[in-house]
Design a protein that fits this description.
This protein has 224 residues and is an all-alpha fold. The chain has helices spanning 2-14, 16-25, 34-52, 69-86, 90-109, 117-131, 135-144, 152-174, 180-221.
Length: 224
């Protein structure tokens, strides 16, 4: 499994068409299954995050008039969920959300190159899996930079830049971008998909934060 993973990640950076097209058009691809390839990267990064980076932070506590402590507590839980989804659990967020959300604009921008949503899904599964290499930069940055994780640079801008560079590199090689029009489609598709990812991730984090708040309240009311 490890040997196949290494073989796949080398090929996806140099000749992504060989990897993606062989999986789509042949029954026995010599490369690792795209979802397994991506999942392995997610699990490895999550384990590294667990041991190397302290993701604790002081959440933003809004000032609410009238002593509405519950509203303050809800806002704190939502802030915690949003920051953790964009840092510690960003690989999982990318696996669950970024792959399909990159594939949706691909249906429009790559309609002449990709014949279905499934083809876009395979391409972006390999792309997101390879983009996890960017965490070799993100993890030291999160651990060493004296910038709070609540800062948008740390939880939004920096991840978007480093993962975007790798993702665009794979897109460039896959679509063999030599014309300006191809580059426009590549940038348009990636930016559209990533912007949708940021929006949906924030919405999902808000729901998770509310659920955590509700669980904490139930625990308190039960005398815990």
């Amino acid at each position: 499994m490890i040997r196949q993973y290494i073989q796949t990640i080398k090929a996806i950076f140099s000749h992504p068409q060989n990897v993606v097209d062989s999986f789509i058009h042949t029954e026995n691809s010599g490369y690792q299954h795209p979802f397994l390839f991506c999942l392995i990267g997610v699990l490895v990064i999550l384990i590294i995050n667990l041991f190397l980076v302290d993701f604790s932070f002081d959440p933003v506590t809004p000032q609410v008039d009238g002593g509405h402590e519950q509203i303050q507590e809800l806002a704190v839980w939502m802030d915690i969920a949003a920051v953790r989804a964009s840092t510690q659990f960003l690989p999982l967020s990318m696996f669950l959300l970024l792959i399909p959300l990159l594939s949706l604009p691909g249906l429009f921008f790559f309609r002449d190159q990709m014949d279905s949503f499934y083809s876009n899904l395979i391409l972006n599964s390999y792309t997101v899996g390879a983009s996890l290499v960017a965490f070799l930069i993100l993890i030291p940055a999160w651990a060493l930079l004296e910038i709070p994780l609540t800062d948008s640079f740390m939880n939004t801008t920096l991840p978007a830049i480093v993962t975007g560079v790798i993702g665009l590199w794979i897109y460039k090689n896959y679509f063999r971008a030599t014309k300006f029009s191809v580059w426009v489609r590549i940038f348009s598709s990636w930016i559209t998909g990533y912007m949708m990812f940021i929006f949906v991730k924030g919405f999902a984090a808000g729901i998770i934060g509310y659920m955590l708040f509700a669980i904490a309240r139930i625990y308190e009311l039960s005398g815990g």
